[in-house]
């Protein structure tokens, strides 16, 4: 059989074959040239790297943003910390290296080995932290013997430093090592094991603002793990700085006045809600959380009966006592059960049913109107106003004044306080409401609970004709270079449920409480500033018990809490203050003078 082949097809196959030969030859030529470059031209360099060195990536922690007060006074900065680590793979004799290191830093080698064993199974070239923040003396000892410590290195990291020990601790908060739950979560996606994050206060609330962006470097290390040279670096981006509304001189003065007392002070600008001071006593040193808190230190803080870890300004719930009479007066006047001229007679007690309700002044106040009742804090007057209003009306006005609800201050875990109602008691205790309980509620006792920040928000709203501002601690956020990123929010949350005419009557009573000799807060009187305020004494034992002998000689824990709320000056107020002194007994003598000195400090620049 004959096969006929087309000459055109043969020629096409020849061309394809020649083309493939050229492609193969070109590929071999490129390969030979590349091998010649690597083995001859760069051979010595790569031989050195392969025999003695390797390339590694090192993380660079970002400096955390700084925190300042409203006058740009630094409150929190960063200091260098020297962390001692080891890469076991870089040590030819791990036990010998640990023996040498032990002599340098005075830590038993068994402890060092125990730290390494915690990471058993991890990558051989992963650094293992042996000791945090070793200090400059131990750093010098390690550096002197570094050639005898293969695989051992010191990493310099920025560590948080709170400049004013214990000052504004509950506002600023503190930092701690990220837990397993927090690492890699949606809230902190860039956080790694060993990182520190904000755990409380401003440090926690503004964690994502303060935290910068991690950088890194590519380095060449020798056989012992020591860095030979830096190949490339991606700089870390510092976190943003936070400017707080805090006035540091006022804050320090408040802390000084609270020394040796248990309680809290909060001061606010009534025109915008900015917190000027937030002091708690006792306080704590935030630096111990950064430096490393021992189990005993932590247990001591938790077991302290005065609760130094609780922010009493936002989390402390106390009976508001006679400061609540502001609410009762507003409700009575607005509902028309009394007017400015209504008078009740106070003989020192009020009989309701088969019970006798005492006034704080045993001899009574005589005939009093609402202004005098506020000024002299007459219990009998407000018993009768509360009786006429009823518990539900009182509760409605209390909630309208911001009690029983969080203020919304930009700090975590704010308490709500308590405004009792008929339904609340039935649900809580399974019991009906007794009308006599309303009388106790009307003077701020009974089931009532309020926080100092709620009371400062209330008195601030009274000061500025009823406008309720959300308390805020943030002034602005700026970059490390000083460029403003954002500013704090001045948010109006509502108005007090009161007309200007009624509010003027209440303010007149608050003015007389401080500026007349018969007022309960005369001790707060200043010649150059018209202060308006209200005292409160929150009873922790019954009136009956007091009559039976419980008085100033009793154990401290049975003494009443002392309240004082105030604003100044009367015209165009610039500061509102709430003070609580636990077991201070009398608001006028224990809490009032603290507010007076703070007003002088802020408005007269004294101290």
Largest sheet descriptor: 7 strands, mixed
The chain-level structural class is alpha+beta
- Return the domain count: 3
Q: How far from one another are the termini?
A: 123 Å
Radius of gyration: 35 Å
CATH C-level of the largest domain: Alpha Beta
Per DSSP E runs of 2 or more residues, the count of β-strands stands at 23
Q: Could you estimate the helical fraction of the residues in percent?
A: 25-40%
Task: Work out the strand percent.
Answer: 15-25%
Runs in which pLDDT lies below 50 for 5 or more consecutive residues are 542-552
Helix run count: 22
What is the CATH H-level superfamily of the largest domain?
DD-peptidase/beta-lactamase superfamily
CATH topology-level name of the largest domain = Beta-lactamase
Give average pLDDT, whole number.
90
Q: What is the level-2 CATH architecture name of the largest domain? A: 3-Layer(aba) Sandwich
Q: What general form does the structure show?
A: elongated
Describe the structure.
The protein is an alpha+beta fold. It folds into three domains: 35 residues; 188 residues, Penicillin-binding protein 2a (Domain 2), CATH 3.90.1310; 326 residues, 3-Layer(aba) Sandwich (Beta-lactamase), CATH 3.40.710.10. Helices cover 37% and strands 21% of the residues. It is built from 22 helices and 23 strands. The strands form seven sheets. Strands 2, 3, 4, 5, 10, 18 and 19 form a seven-stranded mixed beta sheet that branches. A five-stranded antiparallel beta sheet has the order 12-11-23-22-21. Strands 1-8-9 form a three-stranded antiparallel beta sheet. Helix 15 crosses helix 18. The radius of gyration is 35 Å and the shape is elongated. About 2% of the residues have low confidence.
């Amino acid at each position: 059989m004959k096969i006929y082949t087309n000459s055109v097809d043969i020629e096409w196959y020849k061309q394809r074959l020649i083309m493939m030969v050229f492609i193969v030859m070109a590929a071999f030529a490129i390969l030979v040239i590349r091998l010649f470059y690597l083995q001859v031209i760069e051979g010595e360099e790569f031989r050195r790297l392969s025999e003695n060195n390797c390339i590694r990536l090192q993380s660079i922690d970002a400096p955390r943003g700084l925190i300042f007060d409203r006058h740009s006074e630094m409150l929190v900065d960063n200091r260098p910390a020297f962390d001692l680590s080891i890469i076991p793979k870089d040590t030819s004799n791990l036990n010998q290296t640990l023996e040498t290191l032990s002599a340098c830093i005075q830590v038993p080698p068994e402890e060092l080995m125990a730290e390494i064993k915690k990471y058993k199974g991890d990558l051989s070239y992963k650094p293992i932290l042996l000791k945090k923040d070793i200090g400059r003396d131990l750093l010098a000892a390690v550096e002197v013997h570094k050639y005898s410590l293969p695989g051992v290195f010191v990493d310099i990291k920025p560590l948080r430093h709170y400049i004013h020990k214990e000052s504004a601790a509950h506002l600023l908060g503190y930092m701690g090592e990220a837990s397993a739950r927090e690492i890699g979560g949606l809230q902190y996606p860039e956080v790694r094991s060993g990182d520190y994050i904000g755990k409380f206060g401003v440090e926690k609330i503004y964690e994502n603002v303060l935290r910068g962006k991690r950088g890194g470097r590519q380095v060449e290390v020798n056989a012992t793990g020591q860095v030979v040279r830096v190949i490339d670096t991606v700089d870390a981006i510092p976190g943003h700085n936070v400017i707080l509304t805090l006035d540091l001189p006022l804050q320090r003065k408040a802390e000084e006045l609270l020394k040796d007392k248990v309680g809290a002070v909060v001061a606010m600008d009534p025109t915008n809600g900015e917190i000027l001071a937030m002091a708690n006593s006792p306080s704590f040193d935030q630096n111990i959380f950064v430096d490393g808190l021992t189990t005993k230190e932590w247990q001591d803080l938790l077991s302290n009966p005065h609760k130094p870890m609780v922010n009493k300004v936002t989390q402390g719930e106390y009976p508001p006592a006679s400061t609540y009479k502001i609410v009762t007066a507003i409700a009575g006047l607005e509902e028309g059960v009394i007017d400015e001229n209504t008078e009740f007679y106070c003989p020192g007690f009020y009989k309701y049913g088969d019970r006798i309700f005492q006034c704080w002044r045993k001899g009574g106040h005589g005939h009093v109107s609402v202004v005098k009742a506020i000024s002299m804090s007459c219990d009998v007057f407000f018993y009768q106003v509360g009786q006429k209003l009823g518990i539900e009306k009182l509760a409605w006005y209390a909630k309208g004044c911001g009690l029983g609800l969080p203020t919304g201050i930009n700090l975590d875990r704010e308490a709500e306080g308590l405004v009792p109602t008929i339904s609340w008691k039935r649900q809580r205790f399974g019991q009906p409401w007794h009308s006599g309980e309303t009388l106790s509620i009307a003077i701020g006792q009974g089931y009532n609970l309020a926080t100092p920040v709620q009371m400062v928000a209330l008195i601030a709203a009274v000061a500025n004709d009823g406008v309720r501002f959300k308390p805020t601690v943030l002034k602005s956020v700026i970059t490390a270079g000083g460029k403003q990123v954002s500013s704090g929010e001045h948010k109006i949350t509502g108005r007090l449920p009161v007309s200007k005419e009624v509010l003027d009557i209440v303010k007149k009573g608050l003015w007389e409480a401080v500026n007349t000799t018969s007022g309960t807060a005369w001790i707060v009187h200043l010649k150059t500033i018209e202060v308006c305020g209200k005292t409160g004494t929150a009873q922790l034992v019954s009136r009956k018990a007091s009559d039976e002998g419980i008085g100033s000689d009793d154990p401290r824990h049975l003494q009443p809490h002392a309240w004082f709320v105030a604003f100044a000056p009367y015209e165009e107020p610039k500061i509102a203050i709430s003070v609580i002194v636990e077991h201070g007994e009398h608001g006028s003598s224990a809490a009032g003078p603290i507010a007076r000195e703070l007003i002088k400090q802020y408005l007269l620049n004294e101290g």
